[in-house]
Sequence to fold (224 residues):
Amino acid sequence: GENVEQHPSTLSVQEGDSAVIKCTYSDSASNYFPWYKQELGKGPQLIIDIRSNVGEKKDQRIAVTLNKTAKHFSLHITETQPEDSAVYFCAARVGEALNFGKGTSLLVTP
Amino acid sequence: EAEVAQSPRYKITEKSQAVAFWCDPISGHATLYWYRQILGQGPELLVQFQDESVVDDSQLPKDRFSAERLKGVDSTLKIQPAELGDSAMYLCASSFRGGYTEAFFGQGTRLTVV
Fold:
């Protein structure tokens, strides 16, 4: 099955700096790559997604890039704010299955 | 705003007892997922439904876990008997279809087995 690797597991940045989280996937048939933010005690919420026919997508301070050849995709958060502190998960869909990485705990310090 | 509803939010049960979780997906969503999330890890798929049919249950421990979605709407996940290692967050998600459509998650049920 699909294997999604996510790095780093923890990330600490100062407010205003950028944060980058990287994921790799194993199945070249994967065609949809969402990113989720999970706050303590809550379910994951989608923050941005990208399809396999697109190389980059941006939504305000958040952007995702996809390199199909290398089978990796990244989340970029610019001008980080304390409220960005949470656990972020990448995922890859192949067929009907949606497989998640192990998560990155992001801490933004004032 | 439409949401995926899950109940209960929290459940404490003794090992060897039976426990059940309920999920009501967003109206019109044909695909329903049950995930298990162990503290500090990503969600792991247990079972996936398309309407009332099971699409994938390869990671469901079938000796103790069962899931149903009889009318293709709400769903129940059952564990019998519960074991200490089953302590986790159980998340339900739904999407309109698979493919490119977004999966929306519920708040989850936090299970503690004592």
